[in-house]
Sequence to fold (1432 residues):
Amino acid sequence: MKAIIALEDGFVLEGENFGAQGERTGEVVFNTSMMGYQEILTDPSYKGQIVTMTYPLIGNYGVNDEDYESTKSHVEGFIVKENSSIYSNWRAQGSLEKFLKKNKIIGIQGVDTRALTRHIRTLGAMKSVISTKTLNKKKLVDIAKSSAGLVGRDLVKEVTCSKKYIWKDGKSKKFKVVVFDCGVKHNILRLLDIYGCEVIVVPATTDAQKIFDIEPDGVLLSNGPGDPSAVFYLIETVKKLLGKFPVFGICLGHQILGLALGGKTYKLKFGHRGGNQPIMNLLTKRVHITSENHGFAVDMNSLNKDEVEITHINLNDKTVEGMKHKKLPVFSVQFHPEASPGPHDSRTLFEQFIHSMKKAK
Amino acid sequence: MPKRTDIKKIMIIGSGPIVISQACEFDYSGTQACKALREEGFEVVLVNSNPATIMTDPEMADRTYIEPIIPEILAKIIEVERPDALLPTLGGQTGLNVAIKLVEMGILDKFKVEMIGAKYAAIKKAEDRELFKSAMKKIGLDLPKSGLAKTMEEAIKIAEQIGFPIIIRPSYTLGGTGGGVAYNMEEFKIIAETGLSASMESQILVEESIIGWKEFELEVMRDVRDNVVIICSIENFDPMGVHTGDSITVAPAQTLTDKEYQNMRNAAIAVIREIGVETGGSNIQFAVDPKTGRMVIIEMNPRVSRSSALASKATGFPIAKIAAKLAVGYTLDEIPNDITKETPASFEPTIDYCVVKIPRFTFEKFEGADPTLTTSMKSVGETMAIGRTFKEALQKGLRSLEIGRYGLGADGKDVHATKDEILQKISFPNDQRIFYLKYAISVGISIDEIYAKTFIDKWFLNNIKEIVELEKKILKYKSINKLPIKLLKQAKEYGYSDRQLAFLLNTTEEKIYDFRKQKNITPVYKLVDTCAAEFEAYTPYYYSTYDSEDETRKSSKKKVVILGGGPNRIGQGIEFDYCCVHASFALREEGYESIMVNSNPETVSTDYDTSDRLYFEPLTREDVLHIIEKEKPEGVIVQLGGQTPLNLALSLMRANVKILGTSPHSIDIAEDRGKFKKLLHKLKLKQPENDTFYSVSEGLKKARVIGYPVLVRPSYVLGGRAMKIAYDESDLIEFIKTAVAVSPEHPVLIDKFLEDAIEVDVDAVSDGKRTVICGVMEHIEEAGIHSGDSASVLPPHTLSTEIINEIKESTRALARELKVIGLMNIQYAIKGNIIYVLEVNPRASRTVPFVSKATGVPWAKVATKLMIGKTLDELKINEVNVKHISVKESVFPFARFAGVDAVLGPEMKSTGEVMGIDINFGMAFVKSQIAAGQNLPKSGKVFISVKDGDKREIPFIAKKLVDLGFSIIATFGTASVLEKYGITVEKIAKVGEGRPNIVDLIKSKEIALIINTPLGKKTKKDETLIRTTAVERNIPLITTISGAQATVTGMEVLLSKDFTVTPIQDYHIRN
Ligand SMILES: Nc1ncnc2c1ncn2[C@@H]1O[C@H](COP(=O)(O)OP(=O)(O)O)[C@@H](O)[C@H]1O
Ligand SMILES: Nc1ncnc2c1ncn2[C@@H]1O[C@H](COP(=O)(O)OP(=O)(O)O)[C@@H](O)[C@H]1O
Ligand SMILES: [Mg+2]
Ligand SMILES: [Mg+2]
Fold:
């Protein structure tokens, strides 16, 4: 069956449908990871986005029950060059195609994903529509144009948990950590657990008082989808928590922290999505290869230099990738120390968080 | 950290001659390193014995020593040059091992030379299998069960504990040298013994077999600040048990999830840190149990390797260049990524295509060689192909191999085998297995069954199945006009060549090509950019694919396309790549844009900064025409890449492509027997009496007229393929059978075989009016030993001036008559002062780089400039008369092919060459022998056994040996001749004449040198045994009387004089 991806500027590619059928709009972005499609598909940060994999051969190792980053897939659509007709891996439990069907995700294969990537790279991430229903290209472009887009949209509300829950059996752990779920990836929770934390996951809308009531040793602001400035309620909450607990922000959590510290965020042309981003730790001058997935960034110049110090930058485009408060045990990174998918180079940030909780005790 | 300023002069060691497992990739890496270091202002001293390399071009280093890579000579060079540092990690295993020796001999300490890149301790830890094993255990990595042995007794004990099958892996070797798989104790003892003697430290790892596990490789880089990045992951199509060098490999890894890949990545990083490779690249190999995912580490190479070259070409990340910069203190983030310019080298390349590397084998050249692939490498070259899918890349790769196949079968060459034959052929790895996998699927054997026999991952097998299914679909249509366009498109996306489609649809390649063009089904070109299009790329490194967007850029400059030589194989190797690279340099000097087309990942020609544009593509009519139509060059150079592009010349010309230089018509005259005969006749030049025949009876008749011995061969082949000497009728009948089978479209040629003639090679350049002789080389071995295999001397050392002048005159006449523009090579045989023309090659020959190094003139560059219209006068090129002596010697792969007779003949067998250079012939010859790996003895016993024809000469040789202090041992026949001349000889039994016989003595290492010339006709079994045993034990073996004479002259010098070392820059000044 034919499937089409149409961008708001009139760029259209035709391919073969796989996975579910239908029509969905979203911002079209590309991810350069060569492995890890299952993690990408289940990362809630992709809410509102149609993801193109730049690596052309996808589905080779199927999907399995262990590599979920949340309970389901959140992407609005999935674009690949070639979906493998079989899968081969000792952990595999099913095919990608079946997974997409189950999750009602429309897939397209057989398109020139490199052409699409180059298009996005030169003109920026765009509103788009993926469809097996409407096959009139002009119509599809109009649908893309009139779709909502990401800017100013609060997508966190759509992916955050409905109520507080405890990750695994959190008993007899050294530290109690509250995780604001903006669309948290499970690997963040798994790692906190491994590092000895009782992990209490709360909805992003939870107010500060409830947190005080929990009496955690630290607070983690998770990754998540969309425009951080639209998540004003959490920004306000964080302002109240600053100085009370050690705070660690990841990705969207980093942006929210930036906003709570009085900074500004802005939308990048096409963002960073992939597992090969070079980040320099400005304090140690060491380079870490990291996993990234973001379309917005904290504006370096908007931060109060007396209060906040830039700790990490992306060596490719020199954007801010990490910061810390000069006095408070508060720090954050734009990239994903929990990886999944991607390199584990910056896992030590979790240790840093543990350390700051230890010190605060 | 910025560049170090405390070092100024750096020594780089190359890898020596091209051998199986060490090929052009180390020229590529060494050349990059030289360039990178000089760019940074360092003075570079280079040592390499291989003249066919770009790195030994006088412009590449400040001081270039073409000398044998042995510790004694390196010590001399160090003493003269006093480098501050030695960079040992770019010259393969040869460079690394000699560096270790230099440390152990105290040379580096004595002259205060610092090892940079990897320190002694790190190299030891990685190369010594025992140290490595315990280091891996320390960091918690899993390994197969194993034990280390230094003696046979230890080895047997461990083997008994582990149980069969067992893998034997020597320390300090590469390409699996001396290793193997043993299924029983008998095999084990044989392999263990070779392993112990192959290892520099006489150490082998006796290991549990994990044959059938998945094999992976990671290319890792580290800088002084301990930043580590992975450049590329590689998954082997052929599972564990087949050396990675012999495996089809794929980048990136295809069947690992991110979890598993990251686990491997973490392990690799831990390994490089633990081993302590300070800076630079390393190659780390892993195996994964396909059932459980258990991961074990196989080995680490603490240096740039063949896989690094592949990874560099596969990703666009220049590992060797970056390694050189890291070695002098830079950190990864301080080095820009050339391709994107804006981003730094401290990242991990990500690719948006699939890369397939396929090894190239030459079993057909070695009678009796076992084509089973094991842990010891047997391939002589490789091709790489890039596609957007595995299917596309696999088929492109297969048609790049130059084995007469045009993809995964479906090309009219498929063998019709029974199911049993197929199952038998796939159940052990061999060079034809990939095609048998296809046949297996075609006849309906299930993927599960194939998997059970091969352990090739089902993902790969399924892709093959998809290719086969499409073939079946296409076959139904019978004609191109009926084939649905969609299917045609899909076929191209699956990598099907026009040749295959023509076969499936009963038409010609040309018709398919034209039809496609009409329907607008043509490839697009995409960039290799290290970043999957995330950033703009500036380096024009392209591959073709059938997709929607083309990324080539228009340019209005004048352009020339250079066609490269494809995969290395015997007969066509690095020499032709050298010429192509020079062509590119010359074109750029003349203001042209150079466009390189090649498919060999090991080469300098496929470095993205050698040419203005690089197309990494198969060298077939279709693929080349597409590029030409896209680029619209002034013309195409076909005469520098060896036979591959030459074979395309006529069909390209018919497609209206302008061929630069000598016209394809002249090429045709030179290659067509009839036309060539007429030409010689016209010029009053002689040729051995010859004829052509099409049937056995005709052949026998003609042979009788010409008189035995005769030489028979199929027409149009390079490297003397299937060329045989027939001494009588029965020989002839047998040879015709094999010869005719090689090339059915072409008749068989028959020549009078000139016995005991001196062979001469001449290279010349011509601008169409004037011809300049580049060099005249006299062969050491007589005619009958392929020119690519014999040693040769420049200038000739025994020929008279009259003969040399006559040779030069004939060469000029031939060049004039053939209207040569560019290079030409002629082989002559001189017998009794009569000069016979054996062959004219109106193209660059294998000897061009050697002659260039010997004379100091870059002849390939000169030729290129002539091809674009310059004249010799304009370029001020004249004949060079050198005062020094240059000797070229060949190196052979016999040690890789157990049981194959190490005897030379008209069919080429060598893989590479070395050069010995000195002002004295004996010394130059000795240097060439040492460089080629002959351990010429200074004392001991020399075994002599020669054929009757050589019994006249041998007493003089033996006498000289005795005078030099050697003792002689011989079989009865030879002994009685020697005794007549008053030479004291110890007699020894032949095999079968009692024990101990000569083979026993060789085995117990009592023989220091063997002179054994084979009987003209069929060689006897025991003679073969002598030679194969000598090769196995690495005892110097001489198989021609002329070789023996030269060697003895050399040994005399060796005993009386010390080596002197001189950089080629100094030789050239002297002239
Ligand atoms: N334990 C083993 N079981 C099966 N195959 C093995 C084992 N160890 C090595 N091999 C195979 O042998 C090849 C060569 O071994 P390796 O140690 O890498 O030699 P080299 O150093 O010469 O490259 C590997 O590529 C792998 O396929
Ligand atoms: N008529 C001959 N008599 C003696 N040796 C010959 C004769 N013809 C060819 N040879 C030997 O065979 C070798 C290969 O022959 P050649 O025609 O050069 O083939 P190729 O095309 O493989 O280079 C030569 O180098 C020479 O040693
Ligand atoms: Mg190896
Ligand atoms: Mg020849």
The pocket of adenosine-5'-diphosphate (ligand 1) is lined by residues B 144, 167, 169, 173-176, 207-211, 215, 240-244, 285, 298-299, 375 (CB under 6 Å). The first strand of chain A starts at residue 2 and ends at 7. The mean pLDDT of chain A is 96. The CA atoms of residues 62 and 95 of chain A lie 4 Å apart.
